[in-house]
């Protein structure tokens, strides 16, 4: 029987097996712990980098072992075989190479962990100083990349105005921007609730109409119309319509006059009076229609001029107009019309935005291309646009610089120390191993040089 069976596992007759035989459900294994907050995910590229780091570590360590072997052999040859002076030079170079290799190994290892697990001060710098590094990195980015002078100089060097103009002048690009604007407009209108917008529009229109006195404006407009003679067409139309109506309804007018006569008058007299009144009324209207200089027209002109003056200067007239305006605005029918205006406008805009050949989209496209052509050639306009863009970006950067840099600081603070160290080592560890190799080579050369100089001076 294997160890697992003897331990009372499912393969044996232990408690677990007995519980299963009795029909008792075996407790499900506990769920795996949630991933560490801020932990990195090592993908295939990271694993390949880590393999490269391991290969370079092996190379650097192999070089260290090689110079150590050379040192041992040189010393052995020098003492056991009585080798000449060359053995001293080789031993000195190998000894210095070992010192350089060990020193650089310690320096590289101290970045990511404690060498040999010893609690040496100022080692495992990345895991222990991770949060401080994040703060320092945030401050560095804020001071050197998010300062107003740096941002403004960088944006100015890009020549955004000219580039934007040349880009917009292309028909394909103008079509793309127009389509994106139409999509954004449709999305915004779809998200907005009609009831809320209707309430806002209705309140805005009503408040604006109530706060603005309309009588003086109406008076000035009417005065200009009368001076220009624009009202005469309306008078002509009224006279023509009145004449036609009298011709059509002559009997009705005569009967109305007869019906209003006293009962003691003879009927033929009433009829004569009715006919006379009708003829005089028809003659008056006909003359007024056909004679531009008719006294009644002059009376209308005087009335309109006086009314226009009263609208501008007469307190009582202006007050009556304002009361009439308030009464009209307070009517439910008027409020419904004002509120429903948004629905009509919304439907019209959405329909125009969806139709590629609509007047709205064609005009927007033409305006964009015209703006692009001007931006590409007009240096003054380029300067204005670039000034606006620079000002906007500088305002955002300077106002929200702390929020932007805190993104770096908070993100680094949320990283797991061990995973951070492994991730950074996977990206730069291969180059750091070259430091160990270079340290071995440079140390050997330096040791050889020092030994040579010492020998030259008889030391």
Automatic annotation (TrEMBL):
It comes from Streptomyces amritsarensis. It comes from the Bacteria. The chain crosses the membrane at residues 58-74, 86-112, 434-453. Coiled coil: none annotated. Residues 1-38 are annotated as: Disordered. The keyword Membrane applies. Pfam families: DUF445 (PF04286). This is DUF445 domain-containing protein. Residues 27-36 have a biased composition (Pro residues). InterPro entries: DUF445. Keywords: Membrane, Transmembrane, Transmembrane helix.
